[in-house]
């Protein structure tokens, strides 16, 4: 289930339900506030449903379809009232768009509700570019950056050009190519817990490639991946700092980086 690469601008202002995601809520709230600012700047009326919880991806990836279905129903109920659902995570959006119907396959009525909501659910960068045709204004950051394309966002949602188009509007920012930008960082949700040795070997290669890029900042669109890479970079003594792309686009790229929160 792939998102369209372009769409007509919706009637203004569209009502958007912001899905914050578990990691952002617990580990890096500034990403949620950055997403909120960008959506409002793009002309959206944004609400954050208090009933939202986990999207169910950890359970689904572990084969627990029954609990995934419970979480999927809760997500659908919380976000159905909105014109669009937007999250700063290709991983979580990939789960809702590509796998809810599978998790609810034994319940056709709920599976249909999941299918309808999936058509209105977007990763943040894709929504800003493909739906709202938004370009940030007045954002400045004198920095060399490189960008990692997370697996779910790239492969399940087709998110590649959108973050680069948005970052191109940031004055003073220079984007450096990243060798293996489309290669997994080794996080993989529960993969890094089940197979820590493999995960560590993968992220070690990724960290070396990031250092070779010559960039000062590492950007991406999924906090899990960014936390994994930031941790490895710090352990190897690298001076590269990591941010979610939304933070840079919202003018927060000069604050504490991921792993530096105080």
Describe this structure in words.
This protein is α/β, with parallel strands linked by helices and 262 residues long. It has 2 domains: 15-130, no CATH class; 136-249, Rossmann fold, CATH 3.40.50.11810. Helix content is 47%, strand content 14%. It has helices at residues 22-27, 29-41, 57-61, 65-79, 90-98, 100-103, 108-118, 124-131, 151-156, 161-167, 191-194, 196-212, 223-235, 245-249, and strands at 15-18, 45-47, 84-87, 121-123, 140-147, 171-176, 217-220, 241-244. It starts with 14 loop residues before the first strand and ends in a 13-residue tail after the last helix.
Provide the fold topology:
Layout: E1 15-18, H1 22-27, H2 29-41, E2 45-47, H3 57-61, H4 65-79, E3 84-87, H5 90-98, H6 100-103, H7 108-118, E4 121-123, H8 124-131, E5 140-147, H9 151-156, H10 161-167, E6 171-176, H11 191-194, H12 196-212, E7 217-220, H13 223-235, E8 241-244, H14 245-249
Parallel strand pairs: 1-2, 1-3, 3-4, 5-6, 5-7, 7-8
Helix pairs in contact: 4-7, 8-10, 12-13
Indicate the mean pLDDT: 94
Largest sheet: 4 strands, parallel
**What is the alpha-carbon Rg in Å?**
18 Å
Instruction: Give the uncertain stretches in residue-range form.
Output: none
Q: Would you count the extended β strands for me?
A: 8
Strand order of the largest sheet: 2-1-3-4
Short description:
The chain has 262 residues and is α/β, with parallel strands linked by helices.
């Amino acid at each position: 289930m792939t998102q369209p690469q372009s769409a007509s601008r919706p009637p203004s202002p569209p009502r958007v339900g912001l899905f914050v995601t578990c990691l952002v809520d617990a580990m890096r709230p500034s990403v949620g506030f950055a997403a909120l600012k960008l959506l409002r700047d793009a002309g959206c009326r944004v609400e954050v449903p208090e009933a939202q919880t986990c999207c169910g991806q950890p359970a689904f990836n572990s084969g627990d379809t029954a609990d995934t279905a419970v979480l999927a129903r809760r997500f659908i109920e919380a976000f159905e009232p909105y014109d669009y659902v937007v999250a700063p995570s290709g991983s979580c959006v990939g789960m809702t768009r590509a796998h809810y119907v599978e998790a609810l396959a034994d319940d056709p009525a709920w599976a249909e509700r999941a299918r309808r909501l999936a058509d209105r659910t977007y990763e943040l960068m894709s929504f800003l570019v493909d739906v709202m045709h938004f370009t940030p204004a007045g954002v400045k950051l004198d920095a060399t950056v490189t960008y990692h394309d997370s697996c779910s966002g790239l492969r399940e949602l087709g998110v590649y050009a959108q973050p680069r188009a948005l970052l191109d509007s940031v004055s003073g920012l220079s984007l450096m190519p990243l060798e293996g930008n489309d290669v997994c960082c080794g996080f993989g949700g529960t993969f890094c817990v089940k197979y820590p040795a493999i995960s560590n070997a993968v992220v070690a290669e990724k960290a070396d490639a990031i250092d070779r890029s010559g960039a000062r900042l590492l950007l991406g669109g999924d906090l899990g991946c960014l936390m994994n890479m930031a941790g490895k970079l710090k352990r190897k003594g690298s001076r590269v700092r990591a941010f979610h792309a939304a933070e840079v686009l919202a003018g927060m790229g000069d604050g504490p980086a991921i792993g530096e929160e105080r």
